[in-house]
Amino acid sequence: METDDLITALAADTRRGRISMAWAWSAAGVAAVAVAAIVFFAVLGARSDIAAAAETFRFLFKFVVTMVLAASAFGLLKMLSRPDSDPHRSLLGLAVAPMLLAAGIVAELAVSPPGTWSAKLVGTNSLVCLTFIPLIGIGPLALLLLALRHGAPSHPMLAGATAGLAAGGIAATFYAAHCTDDSPLFVATWYTLAIAMLTLAGAFAAPRIARW
């Protein structure tokens, strides 16, 4: 059987099982958020001044970026679980969150004196961020990889990396409620590094878990 014929047949099988796969992804998404919430409230919890912080744009902006990343990565992950997906065209959706963050950085630099930029970038919670975003996200990553196993990704490493991005976005959304560093410069540096850890973990794990 030719490779194109095999992919077409697998895609047809995936379409026939669309409802079950849809339920699998829905269950994985809900479970991933639930696990992240349990770990977050068990080990960290929200910051003490969250009510006052919620009145500031910079605090709320963190959630916009992380939730957009989680949603776009999760949507792409579902597409990549199919053998007939086009990864190059699908990756465009992932650009939204970085573009939003870049716009936030430009705005931050425009309104902040240059002498404060370094302090805003370093922040006060960098090590906490690098520790707890991966800790909160490892459970969601495992659940998303298990869901991916029910599909037939033709690019498992890319799919695994995308699962890591989705898990990182979920974890970062919860962590943002605890973090007192609200600068987009801090988010772009430390949140990105923490999410990259989950992305690498997903990329290395997926070829072993989602093999078909």
TrEMBL record:
Alphabetized UniProt keyword annotations: Membrane, Transmembrane, Transmembrane helix
Alphabetical list of Pfam families matching this protein: NrsF
Keyword Transmembrane helix: yes
InterPro entries: NrsF
Organism per entry: Sinorhizobium americanum
Top-level taxonomic group: Bacteria
Protein's recorded name: DUF1109 family protein
Segments crossing the lipid bilayer: 22-47, 59-79, 91-111, 123-146, 158-177, 183-206
